[in-house]
Each structure stands twice: as C-alpha cells, then as structure tokens.
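Example 3.
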Amino acid sequence: MAVYDFHAGAFRDDDWIFPDDDASLPAGKAAVSKARFVAREEGALGLVLTAGDTLDGLGNALARVELVALRFPRYADGRPYSLARRLRERHGYTGELRAVGDVLRDQVDFLARAGFDTLDIVHPGTIEALRAGTLVRVTRHYQPGARSERPAGYSWRRVSF
Amino acid sequence: MYRYDEFDSDFVRQRVAEFRDQVARRLSGELTEDQFKPLRLMNGVYLQLHAYMLRIAIPYGVLSARQLRKLAHIARVYDRGYGHFTTRQNLQFNWVELARIPDLLGELADVEMHAIQTSGNCIRNVTADHFAGAAADEAVDPRPYAEILRQWSSLHPEFSFLPRKFKIAVTGAERDRAAIQVHDIGLQARRDADGAIGFAVYVGGGQGRTPMIAKKIRDFLPESDLLAYCTAILRVYNLEGRRDNKYKARIKILVHEMGEADLIREVEREFEGLRGTPLALPAAEVARIARYFAPPDLAELPPHSVVLDSRSAGDPDLSRFVRRNLTAHRAPGYTALTISLKAIGEAPGDASADQMDAVADLAERYAFGEIRVSHEQNLILPHVRLDDVPALHAGLQAAGLATPNAGLVTDIIACPGLDYCALANARSIPVAQRIAERFADPVRQDAIGDLKIKISGCINACGHHHVGHIGLLGVDRKGEEFYQITLGGSADETATIGEIVGPGFPADRVVDAIEAIVDVYLRLRHDASEDFLAAYRRIGAEPFKSALYAEV
C-alpha cells in the first residue's frame, strides 16, 4: 500500500497493518480502533480514530503511539481537522498523523496545515492530481498553521511553498 | 477603508485560479454535482430555481465607489442589469452562467472583492454595524476587528467543514444595529474603565427553524485574545456540534443541548490551551489594521446647517427625507445618510446597474467615495455634510433613490423567496410590494412611525421574520401560499423572538391582516412617541389576536 507523504511531497510504500477488532494483533506495526486500544493492553503502536471519537481515556498510552490514523467518513465531515489540532496541542502528540478515507484534492492543503503528515485516500481524482503534481494551490494563508511556514507581515499571516 | 496589500491580492487571485480549476473539473465531469456542491458553495455559488446564483461578499458592509461601479458593470455584463442586496451585507446576482463565474471573480479581484465563504458550512462573511465609524453613539469602531476576523476566517484549514454555516457579527455601540444576538458569535467591542478595548462575547444566537437569542459567555474578552477565543469556540463546535441532522447542526442547538455552563467550561478549557500561541493579537498589528479605518478628513462645522434648514422648510419631500433618512453623526455638521432600496412597488434590496452607478457618483461627489450596505437591505453614505444634503437628495431623486422611508412600515426586509430561491415555500417580494403599496401614503407612514416588517419565504428565515416587529413567514399549505404572522420580535440590544399570533393567512388576505394589526396599534398606543414595539410590549398579543381572528 502507498501513502502520500507531505514531507516528501510524494507517495511512498507503507507497512502499517490495520487488523479488524476481532482479528489477532499481528507482529510489527499495527494500528487498532480506539475501543480495542483502550480495552486491551496489547501494546499496539498505532491508533485509528473515527470522526466522532474523542481523545478521552487514552491516558499516557499516546506517548508510545507512533501513528494516529484519523478516518474521514465523508469529506464534508470536518471533525478530524480539530481532532488533529487537539492531539498536537492539548496532548502533545508528536507521532505521525494520517488522514484516511474520502478526501478531495481541494482539502489536501487544509490537511497539511492542520498537522497531518500522510494521506491514505480513495478518491481517484485526488490521487491522480497528487501523482501528477497538478494541484492548484493557495499559498497565502491568514492563520498560523501546524507546519512551519514563513511569516508574512501580520502576526496571523503565513506563506507556504 | 481597508485596502488589499500584495498578500491579499495574491490570495484572492490564487483562489480564483483554484475555483477556475474546480469549475473546469465540474464541466468536464470529473466532479459530480454532489462533489462540486461544497466547493462551489465555499465560493458563493448556489444552484437556484432558474440558474446559478452568485453571492458576493461585502465585508462588514463597506464598499468604495470604485467597487460599486464594478458591481454595476458585472450586473450589466454577466447578469440582467440588476443585483440584490441581502440581509447579510452580501450582493446576489441571480442569472449568472457557471462557465463565466471564474472571469467574473477575476473582475471582482481587480477591485479587491471576492465571493469567498458567502455560503457553505464555513465561517461566512463577517458583518458589522453599517454606521461604523460614523455613528454618534459608537464606543469602538468595529471594522478593524471585523477585518481581522475576515482575514483569519478565510480558507481556515480547521474550520472549512463545520457541521453547518457560522455567522459572526460585530458592533461597537450599546445600540445594536448589527443584530449580534441572533448570530452564531456576536461581538460587542467596548472599553473598560481604563479605556482598554475588549469584547462582550455572545454565542448561539440564530434564526431559522429554531430561533434563539445568544448567550453572553464573556463580558470583557481582552482585545488580544479575540482570535484565540474564537478558535476555541469554533473548535468545540466543530467537534461537538451535531452532524446527524442539518436542522439541528447550528451552534445554537449545541448551546441548548449542552447547556450554557458546560459550553463555557469547554470553551474556556480549549482557550487555556491556545493562550500564548501565535493567535495572540499584538496591539501594534491591530493598530496597523485600524489605520485603514481612520476617519476621512472632516471639516470643523457648526452642528446645524442653515442651508439645509431653509431648503427643507420649503420642500416637503426633502423635509420628509431629512426626518427619516438621516442618522446622527459623531462630527458636528455631518450626517450618515440612508439610501432606501425600498421604493414603493420595487423588490426590497434590488438595485439596477444605473442606480449603482448613480450612488457611486454621488458618493464620490459628496461622501468621500464611501458606501455602506446595511443588513436592512439599504445603502448608506456614512459621512455627508448637512450642507450637501439638498443637492444629494436631488441627485437621488433623479435616480429614483430618494424614498424617504428609512425605518418606516414600507422599509420592509424580504428574502428573494419563491421567485428565485430553491428553498422557498412561498413568495416574499410580491407580498412586500403589496404591503408597501397599501401603506404608500407618506402621511400615513409618518403617523405610524418606526415599524419593522420582515418577510421570509421559508423557515430558513433569511428575511429575519423572527425579529421583525411584525414578521411574516411564508409556508406551503397543500400547494397554497400561506403567511404566518409573528409579533414583537426585535434584533437590537433588546433582542426578542417574535410570537406567533395565530393561524396563517392566505396571500390574498395577508395585507389586510397587516393593516388590521397596524390599526390596533394606532388605536391603543399612548401617543405617537410610543412606537409599535413599545406598545406591543406593553399591551401584549391579545388585542391583535382579537382584531385578526374575532370575526371568523
């Protein structure tokens, strides 16, 4: 499986495994649902959150987590953006943040600026545009984002790329 | 007024290019209408009954003469020669072609305008008091804060896919002319005892299906915390707001279901984590923005104008105009002048391209080239010398824009209704026209005094009927248009949701019903100094109910 890596600006192979809740935990890099993560102390290194999940009850376990995958059930569901910000700001999470699911190309920059590192997406047009590098982008921003960007005049402004 | 710098200009151009790409993908079929919908909505493009409609933002209602001329040009070239000013300080064009919208947006960018976030489930055009910077009773000019909020909310990466639309209004006076208590966030800029600026913060007001008055959650938020605090509110809403039912998705429902205390606790907790981040507003940056809104070069003048007094003494039209359409200005010898877009028999809020050009010309000649758009669907020249009012009035008469009815029974707010809108259940404009015709006699209007009638063609309440002194809501009853009447609503600092008076009236009886209500008021008021709302609050709904329903 390939994911799009914002830092590399390219797709790359990925070896994370996403077992069902009733399947046994495979060796290696596995990411499980919040229900499983909280209920069983299996030491999974990855966590899958769906829009609607909260960050309550994760305790200190987040400290060992290397991947949080946030699922977009529909691209119009904006909850994962705020979950991403809360993970970074309130919980100090520094591992990989991945957006999974229905994402349109018009959201790619929003995701990058909300602090996502990788994309595992299904929309063929978006994948094609990322591969071909044909995204039409807005590079001037009126808010500080989660990534390091160039300040631009007023304290709230940033320039990317 | 605010002027784009290079950054703003680049931003808007890039956004136009992005939208051009989205339109091309829609026209080629790569995007389905379903996928295109949220993208076009974020750029103000609706699919209406007859055509695509484009809604252009007029941020906090401020326009230059040059911008208004460009809007006139767009009306002629891309539409059918007119535009419609809305209750949210926007302008709508109802007959544009999708394929031409990117070019139209390019023309808007030429005059520092856009249609970004005038629709969709995002932070909408930020609105403000239309008399900002001019009103005699203003404590703080709200425009710099509205501009900062406009910038901060533009293509916000975290808040572009909210549960539902989100509207912010800002005022800077005790007298609320921006209806802040029926917005998702309402801000009242004020000064503390030491002169420092802060905000009273209201959350969870709104109209629509479930009208609610906002709750005040902060009495004095320091200026520097404005963006961090709004971020905290929006984040809590984005995460907790309902997404299972679009009729329950506004923040007012969250406030209601969560309870005020819990909401405040969540917002304050989120805000704690955002303090000291780059969202803090440095005073120097606010001052930089505020410099754009420095008052124009006003002369030192005596408070009264001999010219105006003597001219209006011999001219009843001018005299009536002066009485109704002038608002006290902070500077002696000046006034803020309302240009009513409610000529008897016309569609409320509509202006032709020629009228837009005429207003632009008059604004340049007499009013520092500045125009405001009010949520009451009128235009305002905020800084006019009293001495110039007679000449300005003559110019407005020539353009068919001198209707002296600001705040009167014929100054009706109405949404586009079933004549244009895909959501409407009933027509609004023809009802507004017929009411205005019934009360056309200026002497009768004067006798009735201040009275706000507001008409919505469906429960979404774009015509603000819930907060009309008299509100009309169009409903569809088995294929027939009916109008439900509410009384006693108000959108000012005493914000109140109107009460439904009883069963609705069919289209052919609704004007008689309004007249019956007005007659009850005239009969029962103490005297002319007790306006409709004051009288209603004193006597209640009963006398109106018996007049409306007694005989049937």
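The radius of gyration of chain B is 23 Å. Residues 134-290 of chain B form a domain with the Sulfite Reductase Hemoprotein; domain 1 fold (CATH 3.30.413.10).
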